[in-house]
Amino acid sequence: MRSGKPLAYTRILNRIEPSVGLGEIRLRNQEAARYARWAAWAAGSIVLVVAGVYARRAVRESHARGAAKPLVPLTVQQQSNEFSFSKVEQDRTLFTVRASHATQYKDENRALLQDVWITIYGREGNRNDNIHTSECSYEPKSGNVVCQGAVQIDLASTDPAASKPADKELQVTTRNLSFNRDTGEASTAEPVQFRFADGQGHGVGVTYSSQKEIVRLSHDVELDMAASPKTGGLPITATGSSLEIRRNDRIVELDAPALVRQGGRELSAEKISIELDADFHARHAVAQGHPTIRSTDAKGEFTATGNQFQASLDPAGWIETIVADGNVEGEQRAPHRTDQF
Q: Is residue 193 assigned to a domain?
């Protein structure tokens, strides 16, 4: 009998059924899907591994670039960790300029110096003065060392060859200082602060000649000495248009209008000069150019004038004698009387 199925359909079944069953087809499809998922996972893992390798390499290269010494700019000719030069006369070193780091620039004829020390020994080699600042520009052609930041100058009264540390005779702080290699002179027009053994002061502008051993404060000088037994227990203030310290001569000069005040007493003159001893303590003082002494207390007022006043001091700073010389006049005013001489 002939079945109801078409002949073509029966032939297709006869071709499929003897070789592979439907269950086996489904099994192979599942295995193929599993293999595909595993292949995709493996490929992704390989990608991650490769990316990690490249990432680690990039990190190492970045660290290597960061740790590498920076390239010298094209405008820089040379860099060094130490820099120094000295001025020598007759086998004696007058001063030395030192820096912990120096950068020499092309086409600019200058070097940038950092952590700069200028040490001055003097013609006799018996000094140890220091100028210190963080940064300066050195111009070899002109010989100028220009320091634009804060500068400290220490004038030391102790021989550098001595075993004990140098005592700072005068300490000066200022800014924008210029030091010339050939003249050995340092100068600035900026405000100046200074300290000494018995007090402090300020002014405007300073010039320091290392060869002549002269320090000059140019304008608006004021000195304040602390109260002590030798000042009678009262502070002393001195003002002047300028102040000059000549270390070779051991002379300090305060120029007109020079004025010294202590309590109710004051001394004015065109010039007040103080002579120092070997330890730089005052031993003699002279007031010249219409000097005038004024004093006010409970007893009244006293005024004295003359061509010149001189005072001698003992080593402790006490006044031993006062001498008035030339055209001396004096007046004492009390509540009920006036005396003149």
A: no
Output the pLDDT for position 115: 95
pTM attached to this predicted model: 0.69
Average pLDDT over residues 77-83: 74
Q: What domain range includes position 164?
A: 75-184
- Domain shared by 233 and 341, yes or no: yes
- Could you give the number of structural domains in the chain? 3
In this structure, the answer to whether residues 333 and 230 fall within a common structural domain is yes
- Closest alpha carbon to 181 in 240, 124, 116: 116
**Calculated CA dihedral for residues 178, 180, 185, 186, nearest 10 degrees:** 10
Residue 259 has pLDDT above 60, yes or no: yes
| Residue of 265, 256, 216, 217 lying closest to 237 (CA atoms) | 265
Same domain, 337 and 234: yes
Q: Do residue 94 and residue 36 come from a single domain?
A: no
pLDDT of residue 56: 57
57 located within any domain = yes
SS3 content of the chain, % helix, strand, coil (to 5): 15, 55, 30
121 and 165: one domain?
yes
Q: Is the pLDDT of residue 23 over 80?
A: no
Q: What is the pLDDT of residues 114-170, one digit of tens each?
A: 999 999 988 777 788 999 999 999 998 899 999 989 999 998 755 444 444 455 678
- Count CB neighbours of 85 within 10 A: 14
pLDDT in tens, 304-332: 999 999 988 777 767 788 889 999 999 99
Q: What are the b/e assignments for 154-166, b being 16+ CB within 10 Å?
A: bbbbbeeeeeeeb
30-42 pLDDT, tens digit each? 665 555 555 555 5
Radius of gyration of the chain (CA): 45
Residue 151 CB neighbours (<10 A) = 26
Domain end marker among 131, 155, 184: 184
Q: How many C-beta atoms surround the C-beta of residue 278 within 10 A?
A: 8
Q: Is residue 212 part of a domain?
A: no
Residue with tokens 């111009």: 139
Q: Is residue 170 part of a domain?
A: yes
Q: Are residues 236 and 282 in the same domain?
A: yes
